[in-house]
Amino acid sequence: MNALPILTLLTFLPIFGALVVVGLNSGQKRLARWLALGFSLATLALALVLWYQFDPASGDLQFQERHPWIPTLGVEYRVGVDGLGLLMVMLSVIVVPMAMLASWSIEERVPLYFALVLFLQAGLFGTFTALNFFHWFIFWELSLIPAFFLIRLWGGPMRTTAATQFFLYTMAGSVALLLSFLAIFLSTGKFDFTELAEMGRTGTLTSALSAELGWRALNSRPLSLIIFTGAFLGFAVKVPLFPFHTWLPPAYAEAPTGTTMLLTGVMSKMGVYGFLRILLPLFPEQMHWILTPLLWLAVISIVFSASAAFAQRDLKRVLAYSSINHLGYCLLGIFALAKFTGIGAASATAKSAALNGVFLQMFNHGLTAATLFWFEGLLEQRSGGLRGLDDFGGLRKPMPVFCGLMGIALFSSLGLPGLNGFISEFLIFRGAFPIITWATALSALGLLLTAVFILTILQRVFHGPLNQSWSKMPDLTLKERIVLLPAIALMIVLGIYPQLVLGVINSTVVQMVRERTF
To answer: Nearest Cα to 6, choosing from 69, 54, 74?
Structure first.
């Protein structure tokens, strides 16, 4: 326990800020923007305190707060972070201010827009720190509602359809997840993630489900698979994993730039986080039973989405499918961890490498993808709403700084050595290959296809003959350079010195691998 409830302060500060901002009148646009940014930067300061005080040598949960809430239902207010939770909190406090700055030009209902972003940030913090399902699920859903309205009220021409599709998909996943946990609670009387994880590790969770809910021919194996499937759907939709991905391209394409940055930068990580924090610890046997179908879904997500990105002509949709591709690597690494491989040192080393890669990929992709969508939004503003690959050409002449900085972000997404994207993908493939060789080998095709569509963007947008319509397109202003440079600098720093993150998360990784050594 900690004297200062820093995680509670971190979670509820954006809620307080949102209430303050939404109370402003519609004419106080400038004040609304600066207040919202100020509250988000205050959470950044709190997160830096967490990072500084975090003990990287310990893989246990830290900064825990635990208070009774509804004891008769096993509900308590319990929060804490390990290396995974801390990394996701840090990603949130970086991407949210970036999204606010990218939304600075929004003029309609400004206080409401920035208040919704702060509510969404609170949902993210609650999701990444809560350790009791009841408490966690409230914040899981809290992030969905602001995202829906951000798309619906400030999106593009097809925003109504995109927002509705986003809401229906994610709500269906949430309902399936809720039903699974209700079944777990009826069988165990527990909502606590750590207690349920211990039951999952020892196999007593499956036995409890069978004893309490078994019915005739529905013995422990099919029953536990049904309950696992409900939880799996909730997280698979959020990532998203093929074939539950069809909501993502229209949502990303129609959402305003800042909202798209939030969707790809942090909200998609909620699904991967759920796989790591909940699904794998509670259902290790079930994941092993259907590991081959899961691996095929991961491979298809990687290769299909990269192929779909190459086929797009809308830059925003290219980046949307690219996000599915890159998150597919995370799932490949997680499924490698789910395979039963014995207790040998070589197996533990491979799984640790893959899991370190997954953690890094979650952070690196969030940073890089959010930055790329920011660049796309700047290009869209300057071109009067155009974003087709064939609408441009030769922009490196009038916009050398823009093309240079966006080029760094594109090469980071490609996985160029020396930038942050390389080390995370390398670790995933290094760890997964000796464990799930065939799936890893097939997934390598995604790397090739990613290079193809990234180079296509560079060729069609930056190079070739200059479209004379854009001969006077303005380069990045000094303010734009100042706000974009920290993200670019972080890509370079993590590419050269990934130990900045690996040193903090490795103990958590080692402990998670040890708990899942079969």
So the answer is: 54
User: And the tokens for 458?
Assistant: 């560079």
SS3 114: helix
CA pair distance 162, 245, nearest whole angstrom:
13
> Is 212 a residue whose pLDDT tops 80?
no
Residues in the chain, overall count:
518
Give the model confidence (pLDDT) of 322-342 as tens digits: 999 999 999 999 998 888 666
Calpha distance 160→157 (Å, rounded): 8
**Angle 478-496/499-515 helices, nearest 10 degrees?**
50
Rounded Cα–Cα distance for residues 269 and 327 (Å): 8
DSSP state for residue 215 in the 8-state scheme: B
Query: Is 60 exceeded by the pLDDT of residue 217?
Result: no
What tokens were used for 438?
Answer: 């065939």
Residue 315 has pLDDT above 50, yes or no: yes
3-state SS string for 137-201? HHHHHHHHHHHHHHHHHHCCCCHHHHHHHHHHHHHHHHHHHHHHHHHHHHHHCCCEHHHHHHHHH
Tokens of 462: 């930056």
Distance CA 72, CA 53 (A): 35
Q: Are 181 and 194 in contact (CB under 8 A)?
A: no
Is residue 65 within a helix (H) or strand (E), and if so which, with residue range?
A: strand 62-70
Backbone angles phi and psi of 86, in degrees to 5:
-60, -40
HSE toward the beta carbon, residue 285, CA cutoff 13 A: 19
Residue 415: φ, ψ to 5°: 95, 35
Q: Residue 516: what are its φ and ψ, rounded to 5°?
A: -120, 30
CA dihedral over 268, 273, 279, 285, signed as positive or negative? positive
* pLDDT tens-place string over residues 242-265: 888 889 899 999 999 999 999 999
For residues 370 and 99, give the distance between their C-alpha atoms in angstroms, rounded to a whole number: 8
Q: What is the DSSP string of 444-510?
A: HHHHHHHHHHHHHHIIIIISSSPPGGGTT-----HHHHHHHHHHHHHHHHHHH-THHHHHHHHHHHH
Across the range 168-183, mean pLDDT stands at 91
Q: Where do we find the tokens 């690494």?
A: 333
- Could you tell me if 248 and 305 are in contact, meaning their C-beta atoms sit under 8 angstroms apart? no
> Are the beta carbons of 404 and 461 closer than 8 angstroms?
no
